[in-house]
UniProtKB/TrEMBL annotation, chains A, B, C, D, E, F:
SUPFAM superfamilies: Tautomerase/MIF. This is Tautomerase. Residues 2-60 form the 4-oxalocrotonate tautomerase-like domain. Its EC number is 5.3.2.-. NCBIfam families: taut (TIGR00013).
């Protein structure tokens, strides 16, 4: 019965990446909580950069300043 | 004051169907909880088939395999 | 695959009322969208009166003033 | 760590208005809860008028009847 | 019609602070979007420290290490 | 910046299991989307069995009938 919602900025997430997220989270929940995978729902919601604020600034503004969210 | 969010895959839900969902849920809450209908908010969010995962698979993949969510 | 979240103030909703909401919404979605009821998830979340704001006021304050959400 | 989600009907909210909402909410949370602003996330989600129901009616229908949400 | 959800760790937020958040956000939305304040709903949800993860760690663990979210 | 919400029935999820979910999802998002883990937030929300409906029934009723969500 688990339901998982992933919100992420819309910055070119591919169909294959979405599939990896869905499969990975479903497997994780099955492993950790012993849940039947056919009961797990995962919803991905991409958010426009103007619509996500971080530290009081739109992410679109942060990106224009060269600030990314990538792993260093 | 109730707030209801409905998430459903984007597969051709019509304006009339949305109106039926909104009216039906508002009436149900009024009947069951005796709430003033003018205080009930209903939000429908359609989710792309690539963005909904079920049993570890994207719904878009399930649909390609001929698996539907229709009542049998 | 539909997922429905109902947020309502915590004011004595009974187990039977919750069951009526769950059955009613599941039936509505089956009727309107022709979805297999075994794919519909409904989650009810009760919110404390101090935690819900309406028109800029906590609902707990509105209730102290005798303002209710009941159908007239 | 606060996370704030704002859902609003899609009726011409500008980029500058979104920035005002993000900055205003981040400042409010910093002032009231003494939280580091760099830990506050704000997400704005615009909802189509057909997808928001109020008092059992789609907002698109209410707007056609001349009913607005503007401050009087 | 705006609906706002605030999620914050459960660390002693008082009733008065909640009222300040509710009033502040309602005023902000009225000012920025010219919305009738009686249509704005704000819901606050406090999350237990074991249930919030940041940078891959439970906030309860971060707090045990002396890491806070306070403004410096 | 990703934000992840996990909703799961309240059936004895331990602190260690929550930590595994938080670490696992943060690592998955870092691996798949190359996101800085210090920007990923994960929130777990446990839902009472009376408050989750599946196939039109409360999960509490399903459990009384001996129907579980465990992996077979």
């Amino acid at each position: 019965m688990p339901y998982v919602k992933i919100e992420v900025t819309r910055e070119g997430v591919t169909r294959a990446q979405k599939q990896q997220l869905i499969a990975g989270i479903t497997n994780l929940i099955t492993d950790v909580l012993d849940k039947d995978p056919s009961l797990t729902q995962v919803v991905i919601q991409e958010i426009e950069l103007d619509d996500w604020g971080f530290a009081g600034e739109q992410v679109s503004v942060l990106r224009e300043k060269g600030i990314t969210a990538q792993k260093k």
